[in-house]
Amino acid sequence: MGFDKRPALSFKRAMVKITIQDVAQKAGVSVATIDRVLNHRPGVKTRTVEKVESAIRELNYQPDRIAARLARGREYRFWFVLPNTAGQFMNRIGEEVEAAALRMAGERVSIMVKRVDVFDGPLLAKVLDELEEGIDGVAVVALDHPAVREAINSLVAKGVTVVTLVSDVPGSKRSHYAGIDNSSAGRTAAGLMGRFLGGRKGKVGLFAGSLALRDHIERQFGFEQVMAHEFRDLKILPVRESRDDTERSEALARQLLAEHPDLLGIYNVGGGTAGIVLALDAVSAPKDLVFIAHEVTEGSRRALIGGTIDVIINQDVGHEVRSAVRVLMAKADNMPLIEDQERIRIDIFMRDNLP
What we know:
Blueprint: H1 6-15, H2 20-27, H3 31-38, H4 46-59, H5 65-72, E1 76-83, H6 88-104, E2 109-116, H7 121-129, E3 137-140, H8 146-157, E4 161-165, E5 176-178, H9 182-197, E6 202-208, H10 214-230, E7 234-236, E8 240-241, H11 246-259, E9 263-268, H12 273-282, E10 290-294, H13 298-306, E11 311-314, H14 317-332, E12 347-349
Parallel strand pairs: 1-2, 1-3, 3-4, 4-5, 6-7, 6-8, 6-9, 9-10, 10-11
Antiparallel strand pairs: 11-12
Helix pairs in contact: 2-3, 2-4, 6-14, 7-8, 9-10, 11-12
C-alpha cells in the first residue's frame, strides 16, 4: 500500500524560515529592490512591485523586523501620554505601559510616558505639540477638544503615527482607536439598569468624569437613548461631573442621595467609583438601589462582591495597551493590521463571574 509523503514534505517546507534572499531569487530581483518594496520607497516599477508582492505571498515571507532594525541601526521611539489622575484604573493603564516598555526593549523599541491633566484641552495639546522631534508614534488618552484635534493632526503631518487610547478623537487624523465601543457600553448599562429595576418607577442618577471626554459622552448618550425609548418610567437626573476624583465623587454622591432619597439607581460612566461607594456605604443607601459602574479595580471588585455595586462594565486595559503598541509597530514597519486582533470587547461582570 502506497504512502503519500506530500503532506510531510509540505510541512517540512513550512518549517523552513524564508529569507529575503529567497524572495529576491523567486522574484528575479535584487535584495535591495525587495527592501525598497517592503518599505514603500519610490523608484520601483509597478510591474516589479507586483512580482515582489506575488513572491512574498507565494513563499509566505514574514520579515524579521528586529533584524531589519538592527541592520539599519534603527530604534523606534513611542510616547504614551496618560492622565495624571490618581485612581486604580489609570494606575492599571500605567502598569500595562510599563510592562510593554520592558517587553519591547529587547526589540529596539523605546516606550516613554508623559502624564498630564487630560481634562485640560489646551494643556494636553501643548504637551503633544512639545514632544521632541524624531519620534515614531504617540498613544494618547485624549480629550475631544479642538486644540487636541489640531495637535494630533500636526503630529500626523510630521509623519508621526497617533493612536488614541480609551477615549477617542474621531474627527482627527489619528491612525487607530484602541478602546471599546462606548456608545454600546452605555446602551448595555441602560438595558441592565432597566431590567434590574424590573418595571419600578423613579429616578436614576448619572455621573461622568467629564463631558469633554469622548468615551464619557458616548456612554451617557447610549445610556439615555435606551432609557428614553425602553424604560420611560425611569427619570434620568442631570449628569454630575466628578473629574474622576474620589473626594469630589463622594461629595456629589452624598448630595445626590440627600436631594433624592427615593433614588432607584446610579450609573457612573467614568472613574471616581470609589467615592460613590463611600457615600453609599456611609448613608446606608437602600439595599435595592442599583449601582452600575465601569472597570474592575481592587476597590470596585470588593464593592461588587459586597453588594454595593451590582454590575461592572469592563474593558481589558492590557489588551488596549498591547493593541496600541501593535498598531504603532505595524505602522512603523509598514505592515498590515489584523483588525479582529485589535477589536476590544465589552465585558460584563457580576460578583458570580468575576475572573
